[in-house]
Each structure stands twice: as structure tokens, then as C-alpha cells.
Amino acid sequence: MASVNHLKVYDEISQSHLEDQNPRPKTAPRRSSAAVVIIIFTAILLFTLVIILTLVALMLEEPNKGRDPTDSVESIKTICNVTRYPESCFTDLSSLNVSKNLDPESFLNLSLRVSITHLSNLSSSFKSLNDLHSQPALKDCLTLFDDALSRLNDSASAMKAGPGLSKEKISDIQTWISAAVTDQETCNDGLEEMGWTAGDEVKSRARSFKESLSNSLAIAANMQDLVQKFGLTMH
């Protein structure tokens, strides 16, 4: 009996030793209910954020939906935004019924045509004045107007000479338009010195010419930036 007991004890010890050598795999602990709630909440939050961002993107895109980047109205606004008198610029260019796909060079040419038209109207108003021959300052203005018209015609001719605009050509055009601006300002100074008061029609035409001339100069001065906005390059 003693030997049997010794064998039983030995078996128990051996079994215990084997269990220590090969421990049973531990089962993974269950996630707590709090962790599950956090995961669900995070997923809902991310889903909601995606929906909000999508709606915001659609709202931002809606104003531009269907807008043609080559639309004449938008193109004119882009051009006139660089001028000192954007409202008169937009009115003048819009009145010409410009077509789509015009580039900044074409708009500068149109703006010069507008300035030439306003100058011709202003010169005609001065020529019709009764006191033209008795006031030297008025005669001086007509001479200055002729010089300004020559400068503007030089600018228009330069744009027609050769394909595209170069930086050198734009520089020449700016110089000629600036000279026309100087002629206009010299005329105004002479009229102020003599204390001459122009009629409403002459004032209106003088203001139209002044603003159109300023607009033409601004378009020429910003030509390189405008060309880039239209996705083009300066020649």
C-alpha cells in the first residue's frame, strides 16, 4: 500500500510540474461597456463630420455652379477690378457688347477705343463753345486734346503691330497713355487758373474722358497680372 501511495504522490507532483511548464492560455478580457460606448460615439462623430464637410463643400460650390470662366461679364469684372473707376469701366466695356473668350490684350484695345471716343466727344464740346476764341486756355485745351489723341492712336497702333503684347510694347503704351493723362491734367489746370466754369455737358464729357483714360492706364499697368489671371502668358 505504501508503494501505491508513493506512486500516487509522484503522479500528482509530475502533473503539477507539467502544468507549470505548460500553463493554460489566458482568455482575452472582455471589453468593458464604457469602451464600446466610446468606440460607437467616435464612429458617429466621424460620420457626422464627414457629412458636414460634404455639405459645406456643396454650399461653396453652388454659387459657381454653371458659371462659365470665359463669360464676358465675369471677364469684364476681372479687368475692371484693377482700375480706379471700376463702375465706369464696366459700363463702358459692357456697352460694346463684347464676345466671349476675349483676353486682356483685347480688353485694353477696347478700353483705348473708349478713351478715344470720349476724347473726341470732349473736343467737339470745346469746339462748340461761344467763348472759345476769347479764352486762350480753351484753345490750349484743344491743342492738348490733339496731342492726347495722337498718343492714344499711337497706343492703339502699337497693339495692332505684330502678334501679342511684349513687356517692351506694354511699357511704350503706358508711356503714351501717361502722356495723354498729363495733357488732360494740364488742360484742367489752365481752366482752373482762368476760373472758367464749364457747362454740365462739358463736365460730364470731361469726367468720362478722365475716368476712361485712367482705366486704360490701369489695365496696361496691370497687364502681366491680368494675363496670368486669364491663364495666359506674356509674349
Explain what this protein looks like in three dimensions:
It holds the Pfam family PMEI. Residues 71-219 form the Pectinesterase inhibitor domain. Its EC number is 3.1.1.11. InterPro entries: Invertase/methylesterase_inhib, Pectinesterase_inhib_dom, PME_Inhibitor. It is a single chain. This protein is mainly alpha-helical and 235 residues long. It folds into 2 domains: 33-66; 72-229, Invertase/pectin methylesterase inhibitor family protein (Butyryl-CoA Dehydrogenase, subunit A, domain 3), CATH 1.20.140.40. 74% of the residues lie in helices and 0% in strands. The chain has 9 helices and no strands. The longest helix is centred in the N-terminal third of the chain and has 29 residues, at 33-61. It is elongated and about 105 Å long. Mean pLDDT is 81; it is low at 1-10 and 62-67.
Strand content: under 5%
- Average pLDDT rating: 81
**DSSP helix fraction:** over 70%
Q: Total domains, how many?
A: 2
The quaternary structure here is: single chain
**Class of the largest domain, according to the CATH hierarchy?**
Mainly Alpha
- Written as H for each helix and E for each strand, in order along the chain, the element string is HHHHHHHHH
Based on the structure given, which CATH architecture of the largest domain is correct?
Up-down Bundle
Largest sheet: none
**CATH homology-level superfamily of the largest domain:** Invertase/pectin methylesterase inhibitor family protein
Name the overall outline: elongated
Pfam families: PMEI
GO molecular function, one term: pectinesterase activity
Domain Pectinesterase inhibitor: 71-219
Enzyme class: hydrolase
